Amino acid sequence: MKKPVKKVVLAYSGGLDTSIILHWLKEHYNCEVVTFTADLGQGEEVEPAREKAKKGGASAIYIEDVREEFVRDFVFPMFRANTVYEGTYLLGTSIARPLIAKRQIEIAIAEGADAVSHGATGKGNDQVRFELGYYAFKPDIRIIAPWREWDLNSRTKLLEYAQSHQIPIGNRTGDEPPYSMDANLLHISYEGRALEDPWVAPDEAMFLRSVSPEKAPDKAEEITVEFEKGDAVAVNGQKLSPANLLTKLNELGGKHGIGRLDLVENRYVGMKSRGIYETPGGTILLAAHRAIESIALDREAMHLKDELMPRYAKLIYQGYWWSPERKMLQAAIDATQEKITGTVRLKLYKGNTIVTGRKSPYSLYSMQHVTFEADTVYDQRDAEGFIKLNALRLRLAKK
Predict the structure, then answer these.
(1) pTM of the shown model
(2) Which residue of the set 67, 80, 97, 103 is catalytic?
(3) Which terminus of the chain is more exposed, N or C, with fewer CB under 10 A?
(4) CATH of the domain at 25
(5) What would the pLDDT profile of 71-98 be if each residue is shown by its tens digit?
(6) In the annotation, is 260 catalytic?
């Protein structure tokens, strides 16, 4: 027999799954349920979740605007590493989970709750990301993952449960949605159902943050992004907070059809999954950050960063944000960013982000050395010995 639960903190969006979970927890565990809704920049109002949670019988309701913390303490540190998972994915869903998990545990401690719960399924990565975060902050916390316990194993059964228990599920008519969606200030992801066949192209009407490149303006738009110590601080000369800066880049990128991605990724649990992503601001930010590093970061430091990045990306994707090894890598990455300050100029045009200029007070670029004209700082004859020494092992091997 399972140990009784007195109070549980639920990561609550107010959508179909978590609305049902709120009722199910009360019904099956006979416990108090505290809801936590994080405003991560989903692009829609989170306040309606308060009324839904209230109607659902939540004993306490937390709704918090964590957009600035999300971008400042999670997105920006990740972008200092130029992080990309499996060559393409900018980790928009992955990077949001550590913050939600941390805050849930803080609320659980404040509320005297003995359990936490989430709406992630038993097939995905999010269950791992949430729960590794929970355990990192409270090793003895009880975790309730309804998708691993109940028999509501399809959207049809969920809708039937909602109807039979008179659970409001928002503006839906009762039809099953054609895909699952997750959104925050960094991205929107679309997965499942109509998108499960990787050969079937996504419906253009699905996209919310970007126009198609074909419908983007016929005239390119030039922008500048300024950096201080590896973090973007201004767009077009205007200083902005982290969240407002990413919002601005989202607007600019979406207008020009930038940041769409259709990929098949390798989930941590072992299966491959197809997802469609919109990351307009993040796509611009990545290109700009790499551009400023190209002029202000030492060659070997840059190459080592690029070697470490796939491991760092994998840690984030698999839910190890709070692990010692991620923190160790972060310290190394951040040490390289002390002089990553300057301005990058980019041209946005029909899905493309094109770097057209970069400058930095810490630039390592020397026109005196690189010029094709006559110079007095570089003796080209030195290259002969350099090449011969580097070729020595090849010459000896051939002999």
Answers:
(1) 0.94
(2) 97
(3) N
(4) 3.40.50.620
(5) 999 999 999 999 999 999 999 999 999 9
(6) no
